Amino acid sequence: MDCETQKDAELEAPSIIDRYYTRWYRTDLKGQLCEDHCILQHSNRLCVVTLAETHPVLQNGRTIKSIDYQISNGCSRLNNKVSGKSKRGGQFLTDFAPLCRITFIFYCFCNLKAAFSCIRGRLLEVNENILERPNLLLEKPSTEGYIAVILPKFEESKSVTENLLSRKEFEIVVSKRDQPQAS
Questions:
Q1: CB-CB neighbours of 146 under 10 Å
Q2: pLDDT given at position 7
Q3: How many domains does the chain divide into?
Q4: What is the pLDDT of residue 177?
Q5: pLDDT, position 181
Q6: Which helix (DSSP H) or strand (DSSP E) does residue 110 occupy?
Q7: What keyword terms does UniProt attach to this protein (predicted)?
Q8: Predicted model pTM
Q9: Residues in the chain with pLDDT < 70?
């Protein structure tokens, strides 16, 4: 295969995320405009929680100062320990359970945003790599910069996406935001 053909094949090849995961979105979380999250759902039910590309933290000019999995005085997502085939011991999360707090700088001002679970299920893992390298959240939000991995209950695995938007529906919501409002 010549170099030209190889480059064309590489450009057309889908990413691992696009190949093995279905993207689902939750928009305007808790009534906050653009507080969008992306849930990558694998065929084995595992869901990877990430920030959607429209989330305020991922916009140009932002610098992430810190990420904290300490949700309250008595609850740290870092203390989550799972064991065994049925993943016993993992913290159970509701749709709007906070996963972490992200402190970012924009125009010399510190801002605080929370990332939420968006789905019900058992917390399997939080991404400790983003604690040491917070810019992974900006550079690779869908891969190395993910926030957490959640396993929905087996009986809820089909219904977990009922409150989420498909990629196409998400793009429609985003395009409507970009349109000027009629007075």
A1: 23
A2: 56
A3: 1
A4: 85
A5: 63
A6: strand 109-116
A7: Cell projection, Nucleus
A8: 0.86
A9: 1-11, 180-183
Note the Cα 24 to chain centre separation in Å. Answer: 10
User: Does any domain span residue 140?
Assistant: yes
Q: Which residue segment(s) compose the domain that 56 sits in?
A: 18-80+87-150
Q: What is the model's pLDDT at position 45?
A: 87
Helix, coil or strand: residue 128: coil
- CATH code of the domain in which 100 resides: 2.40.50.100
Please identify which residue in the block is written with the tokens 């390298």. 133
Q: Supply the pLDDT for residue 165.
A: 94
183 lies in some domain = no
Question: Which one, of 140, 96, 90, 141, lies nearest residue 114 by Cα?
Answer: 96
Question: What confidence score (pLDDT) does residue 3 get?
Answer: 55
Tracing tokens 């928009």 back to the chain, one arrives at: 27
Residue type (1 letter), 76? S
Residue 55's alpha-carbon distances to 13, 34, 116, in angstroms, are 27, 6, 12
CB burial readout 155-177, b (16+ within 10 A) else e:
eebeebbeebbeeeebeeebeee
pLDDT of residue 105: 86
In a domain, 72, yes or no: yes
User: Is residue 95 within 8 Å of 117, Cβ to Cβ?
Assistant: yes
Q: What are the φ/ψ torsions at residue 51 (nearest 5 degrees)?
A: -90, 140
List, in order, residues 6 or more apart from 80 with CB less than 8 Å away. 89, 90, 91, 123, 124, 125, 126
Is residue 109, in this structure, part of any structural domain at all? yes
